[in-house]
Amino acid sequence: MPRPRRLRRDFFARSVHEVAPELIGATLLFRGVGGIIVEVEAYHHTDPAAHSYGGRTERNAVMFGPPGFAYVYRSYGIHWCLNFVCEPKGSASAVLIRALEPTNGLPLMRRRRGTSDERLLCSGPGRVCQALGITAAHNGLALDAPPFELLERTAPVEVVAGPRIGITKAVNKPWRYGLKDSRFLSKPFAATATRVA
DNA sequence: TGCCCGATTAACT
DNA sequence: GTTAATCGGGCAA
User: For the whole prediction, is pTM greater than 0.85?
Assistant: First the structure.
C-alpha cells in the first residue's frame, strides 16, 4: 500500500461537481483526528440552496475567496458545519463535509461527542465538527496546512449520488455524494441512487 | 429594531 | 413520527 499523498490546493480549483465525488474515500484529519470522508454535498453559487446564492456577506465571505480553504458556519444556532471552498476564486462554491468513517483519534472523538458508539461520532455535519473540534475559530484556514491534513484516497471506491438533506430549495438536485453502503452515512442512499464513480 | 427561519441534533411520543 | 434547543443572517419597517 503506497503512502497516501496530500491533496494540494489546486485539487479544489475545479468544478464543485467534480471535486465533491472525488473527496469520497479521501481522509480528513484535524490535528491528527478524523477519518475517511464518506458523505459530502456540493453547493454551487448558482444554486438557490447555497449560502453564497444571495451574494457576499460577512458570514459567507470565505466562499468568495480562493479555493482550498475552510468555510465554517453556525447551523441552527447550535452546530458548526465544515465546507471546502472550490472552483476559481470568486465563484463562491463549496463542498459540505457531512460524514466520516472515524479512523484516527477515536478516544478524543468519543470524549468530545459524549458517546462510544462509533457510528454516532462523525455521521452528520454537526457531529463531524464536534468530533474534530472545529469551530468558527477555524473559518478561513488553508486545507493544505496544519491543523488540517487531507490525504488522497488510496483505492478505488464506489460513489453514489442522491438528493441533498435538510434543505428547502433545489431539493431535487442530486448533489449529495456518498460511499456506497457505508455504515457511517448520516442517512442511507436510496437503493436506486445513481452510481457516479 | 423586530421578526422569521435555517446545509442540525437529540430527546421525546 | 414530532419538537425543543439556540442564534446570526437577511429583510421588512
Answer: yes
